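Ticket #4471: structure export looks truncated?
Reporter: QA, pipeline team
Priority: medium

Steps to reproduce: submit the single chain below to the structure queue and open the exported record.
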Amino acid sequence: MPVTVDGPGNAAAPARTRLVSGVRDAISRGLLEPGSRLNERELCETYDVSRTVAREGLRQLEGEGFVTIEANRGAVVAAISYTDAEHLFELRGALESLACSLFARRGTVSQKRALAAATARTADAMASGDISAILTAKDDFYDALLAGAGNSELSSTLRLLHARIRLLRRYSLSAENRHPKSLAEIAAICDAVIAGDIEGARRAGEFHVAQSARAALPRIFNELCLDER
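Actual output as written to the record:
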């Protein structure tokens, strides 16, 4: 396996968690591409784990949708189909809009300040045009959003979903004039949350995901159609 993000240095972390987190992050950042084979021996060496732990970790990643275990080939990075993308956006819209409404209902002043600061950093990143900076800033925005929502079960579910969604962001971010529109949508979420507008925050979160899907799905469809020719 040629790429790793999280290695064996963190001895305090349980072995399987260390492996799963590292592989999941490499996949979500696009460092391991769909179809890449995950060699058990290399995983054991990279993360300093046993074969049993490596297999358990791969089964967990399969259950999360990051890996496919194929007969006679082993574990490979899963591809996201057009239908998968539709389903991911549907789930993201429902969960993110809930997070926005929960934040507006019970977020603290300090949490709202953190969201406003993350929104400002996103604006700076988009002005720079640096895709890596934009992705980092948007991750910070969602971290602040989930902290303010105050629901640990929702946070863990959305974090896992965002790891898969990150693979699709290049499609929406590459759409013409998407950056200023995306920023306006994020700012609307922030404004509604700060105002304590529960329904407004929910609608703003739902609209943001719907617009992201509208920008991304046609590009995903066209790319898959070209690949099938």
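Status: closed, not a bug. The export was complete when the record was re-opened. Leaving a note from the reviewer for reference: The CA atoms of residues 174 and 216 lie 8 Å apart.
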